[in-house]
Design brief:
This protein has 670 residues and is mainly beta. It contains three helices and 44 strands. The radius of gyration is 39 Å and the shape is elongated.
Length: 670
């Protein structure tokens, strides 16, 4: 008895210690090295995930002056003296705990190094705005979005930066902007102020070029036309205000969150950076492995310069792993899925070793819903030629396709290692392949998943996360109409009713599902008779004498009902046959009874002539008077997923004199 208690207590203590360690921030060590400062850190011990590659930390240093470093121990020379708030964001890869929290460390700089050389290795395109994150978002943790902007067109550019986050398609708030830090005299603004300033700029531009437009109607180009005087030539610059307004309006419809900054006077080829702390809310746990998009936009104050967009796709992860797989879209609309519907897989990998990788093989299983012959490689890094078009020993990529698997193989490449000496650009150690694949004809509507195995040279394979796609359930409305037949039970019988109903179920399900139904039952008629009872009573009708020999009472009840099926469990055996079981509840909306009293008579004098007489008694209409319920079993034949069907349903009523019912119907689901 004591041993299990000790084991449980030990587990609880271990768990508490692990949680306490997760809350320990990094200890930042600062050491002067000539004109530079050497940074290092002390972090909590890593807790290895069983079966994963060796756990390790990656680093992002925010140096407090608008610059940053991804090195483990950066050596940096500040441009000016002062006190700088240095932050370290350490990411625990292949570790089962949370990332260490970040605390700013003030660092006092006494020496300045004017004209120091610092390379950001940030911009990889030709645009003026780009984004990068220090780690993938993980529910319950924060990450830093680094927005970099520059000017490649003019020596003094001013404008507005906008970051859009929280896509509406996910239906909930996924990120919370905790803090934004900027170091180049940027000012916080609002989207309303930006839109208003664009309206003003557009009006000023139209007023300035009104004559020009009128002149162009007379065949003049790039000249101001003055009806009362000579033409005055001048350059008409392009106006991108309308384009900026359109983009902003579109992005507001796409996102629920945004933040706005205005900047001034950035010089040609100068680089500036803004750091934004985003908290990944715990509710994003249901979107793990989803791909979300952050969009940064630059709107220059000068309308002659075009606005620029940069979209950054990031994966929501359950743990930090530099090798991961993404799928987009993750939720698929089955109703709108045509023959050419395709999905996109992206497999990210990083060489975390101490030396370069020359061959990388990536293999993944193909789910049964997908068509392996439709694979198309869209993008890759490093960029290579196809091996069948490359010369001997040239860098190339090869593709091997099988019915249930797919392989991409990079040959003769050079991918530096993350821990390789002399590697300063951490992005150069990463790569990816992006490919599209189409569905097979009429795939089963069930979730499907796959993961990739990545082999660097001859090392053991590294497995990515499992990437899962699901079909949106969708709603399939339908109608049903039919007739209810009830076998007689002695002196009791039922005619009808006619049934008109509405059906609601998931769209084209491949798994068992629930269906809801509502019916109006019309013109039902219940009949009951007492049978003829013998009698020997004299009576006089008019002037004639008769002998009553028998009496009979017949009751007819006319009903209109409302019936619902709150519990109906169905399964489609194939595309043409389906069955279900459930329970139905019925309420009689209106009910009216008519009694017929019938008397059988003979004359008392010869010749004896038999005759009959009837009298009728009708009751008042009763509303919502009685109810009933019935379990049932159901069989359908036809296009049972979506389309027309015919069906037969057997119901067993819990109350009443006629308890067996058969409902023969036809219906259609949309």
């Amino acid at each position: 008895m004591l041993k299990p208690v000790l084991v449980i207590a030990s587990l609880l203590v271990t768990s508490c210690i692990a949680r306490a360690q997760d809350s320990i921030p990094p200890v930042i060590h600062v050491e002067e090295a000539g004109d530079s400062v050497h940074f290092s850190s002390q972090l909590r011990p890593l807790r290895q995930i069983a079966g994963a590659p060796a756990a390790f930390y990656t680093y992002f240093w925010e140096l407090g002056d608008g610059r940053f470093s991804f090195d483990k121990e950066p050596l940096y020379a500040y441009r000016d003296t002062g006190i700088y708030q240095v932050r370290l964001y350490a990411t625990n890869n292949y570790d089962d705990g949370k990332a260490p929290p970040t605390r700013p460390r003030p660092v006092k700089i006494k020496k300045k190094v004017p004209g120091n050389v610092w390379a950001s290795h940030f911009f990889h395109g030709s645009g003026n705005i780009e984004m990068k994150i220090n780690r993938n978002p993980r529910p319950g943790e924060d990450f830093v979005a680094i927005m970099g902007y520059r000017s490649t067109q003019t020596d003094s550019l001013s404008g507005t930066l906008v970051l859009f986050y929280n896509e509406r398609q996910f239906g909930q708030k996924g990120f919370d902007l905790a803090e934004k830090r900027y170091y180049n005299n940027e000012d916080s603004s609002s989207l309303g102020s930006l839109m208003a300033s664009l309206e003003t700029r557009d009006g000023e531009y139209l007023a300035r070029t009104d004559g020009s437009q009128e002149g162009q109607e007379h065949g003049l180009t790039n000249q101001a036309f003055h009806p009362s005087g000579p033409e005055v030539a001048y350059d008409v610059s392009p106006n991108y205000t309308t384009q900026a307004q359109s983009l902003l309006t579109s992005l507001q419809k796409e996102y629920t969150g945004h933040t706005v900054l205005h900047f001034s006077g950035i010089h040609n080829n100068e680089e500036r950076f803004v750091f934004m702390d985003l908290n990944t809310l715990p509710t994003m746990i249901q979107d793990t492995n989803a791909t979300v998009t952050l969009t940064a936009m630059m709107v220059p104050d000068d309308p002659s310069y075009p606005p620029e967009l940069h979209r950054l796709e990031v994966a929501v992860v359950a743990s930090h792993d530099p090798n991961y797989m993404q799928i987009k879209p993750r939720r698929i609309n089955y109703r709108l899925m045509g023959k050419k519907k395709e999905i996109t897989y992206t497999i990210h990998f990083q060489n975390t070793g101490r030396g370069p990788a020359k061959r990388i093989a990536i293999g993944m299983a193909i789910p049964p819903q997908l068509n392996s012959s439709s694979v198309q490689l869209k993008s890759m890094s490093p960029v290579c030629k196809w091996c069948d078009a490359a010369y001997n020993s040239q860098s190339c990529i090869d593709t091997i396709r099988k019915d249930d698997s797919l392989y991409f193989v990079f040959n003769n490449i050079y991918l530096p290692g993350l821990n390789q000496q002399g590697v300063t650009d951490k992005d150069s150690t990463k790569g990816f392949v992006e490919y599209t694949i189409r569905f097979k004809k009429k795939p089963k509507k069930i979730p499907f998943s796959t993961k990739a195995a990545i082999v660097f040279d001859r090392n053991e394979p590294v497995f990515t996360n499992k990437s899962t796609a699901r079909f949106i359930k969708g709603i399939s409305p339908g109608i049903m109409a039919g007739y209810v037949y009830s076998p007689s039970n002695g002196n009791y019988s039922t005619n009808g009713s006619l049934q008109l109903g509405y059906v609601l179920s998931p769209f084209s399900p491949s798994r068992p599902y629930f269906q809801v139904e509502a019916f109006a039952g019309l013109l039902q008629q219940d009949n009951s008779t007492t049978g003829v009872t013998q009698d020997q009573t004299d009576t006089v009708i008019g002037i004639g004498k008769y002998l009553i020999v028998g009496r009979e009472t017949k009751t007819t009840i006319k009903k209109n009902s409302f019936e619902v099926t709150p519990l109906h469990f169905r399964y489609n055996l194939c595309n043409w046959i389906g069955f279900g079981v459930g329970a139905q509840v019925m309420v009689n909306i209106s009910e009216q009874a008519t009694k017929e009293y019938k008397v059988y008579m003979n004359t008392t004098l010869p010749p004896i002539t038999p005759s009959a007489a009837s009298t009728f008694q009708q009751s008042k209409t009763l509303w919502l008077h009685t109810w009933n319920a019935a379990p049932f079993a159901d069989l359908q034949i036809g296009r049972v997923r979506t389309g027309p069907v015919i069906g037969l349903r057997y119901l067993r009523l819990l109350k009443g004199d006629v308890s067996n019912r058969f409902f023969l119907y036809a219906g259609i689901k949309l």
